[in-house]
Design goal:
about 15% strand, seven-stranded parallel β-sheet, 9 strands, 9 helices
């Protein structure tokens, strides 16, 4: 994969925020973009400005049955698919006891089952051409869970585990997987939060979290334009990490998570090892 080759992208949730910034950055790099959005009217300006290189497609990222059609539309228009970005997402805020099954399942549809279907639809074309990059927009909340954000974090944790297995499976075919783990970026994400019904049990303990999440809108430290430029540069590069914490907060927070996790494993290692048979032969496999 060369840095100057024209690439074709599918970007879900491309009408605003990081998705919109990614679409603009890819087009500015001379690439082709299929912007997969629920409301194509919101992309009319970009489609008009880049009529030859941008296609706007109506698409609900939760609709697993629509994934094959989106990929077929992309291949019919541009002849190949190089970068798939599963970007569409949102958050539900509330304690575990407050978030309903329907809310939790909806986030799993949006953050796991929808992306999984789209990846499955895209892989035959990527394997056939011997190259491709799958960008999964996760979160720092995909590696560390926060109280009051269990539904969102669990869906991103699931996406990360699924994608880590995927990365190992498709690497022999020249297909890369990039898990992007952003901290807070100045998009409309925090303005669109869904808050569960507040119970008396958690009203006081989660009040600071609810206020912090709602109050972050418009003052997030991350620049979506700079973030998009990073991702586009990586998609055109030879070397792509499996995980990319994006933003200073994500780097610091996740570094701390890894250090604390390793320290905890080492602290309890002797007790953990005591669960094996005395004559057991280690079957540890490299990961």
């Amino acid at each position: 994969m060369t840095t100057d080759a024209t690439q074709t992208w599918i970007i879900t949730g491309a009408s605003k925020g990081l998705g919109r910034a990614l679409a603009e950055a890819a087009l500015a790099a001379g690439d082709h973009v299929v912007a997969a959005v629920r409301n194509p009217d919101g992309m009319a300006d970009l489609a008009a400005e880049h009529s030859d290189t941008c296609l706007v497609a109506r698409f609900d990222a939760r609709d697993t049955h629509a994934a094959t059609g989106l990929v077929s539309t992309t291949l019919d228009r541009f002849g190949r698919l190089d970068v798939l970005v599963n970007n569409a997402g949102r958050a539900v805020i509330g304690a575990v006891e407050e978030v309903s099954d329907a809310q939790l399942r909806d986030l799993m549809d949006l953050h796991l089952f929808g992306p999984a279907a789209l990846v499955r639809a895209a892989l035959p074309a990527m394997r056939g051409q011997g190259s491709g990059t799958i960008v999964q927009m996760s979160s720092q909340g995909g590696r560390v869970a926060f109280p009051g954000v269990s539904a969102y974090c669990s869906s991103k944790f699931a996406l990360e585990g699924w994608s880590e297995s995927l990365a190992a499976e498709v690497a022999p075919f020249g297909v890369r997987v990039l898990l992007v783990e952003p901290s807070r970026f100045r998009t409309a994400f925090n303005a669109g939060l869904e808050f569960s019904a507040v119970s008396d049990s958690y009203r006081d303990t989660l009040a600071p979290l609810r206020a912090d999440m709602a109050g972050a809108d418009g003052v997030q430290e991350g620049d979506p334009v700079r973030a998009a430029d990073v991702i586009v540069r990586l998609a055109h590069s030879e070397d792509v990490p499996l995980r990319l914490p994006l933003g200073s907060e994500a780097v610091e927070r996740l570094s701390g998570v890894y250090r604390r996790g390793l320290a905890e494993v080492e602290r309890w290692a002797e007790i953990a090892r005591s669960a094996d048979f005395d004559d057991a032969v280690s079957a540890v496999r490299p990961v």
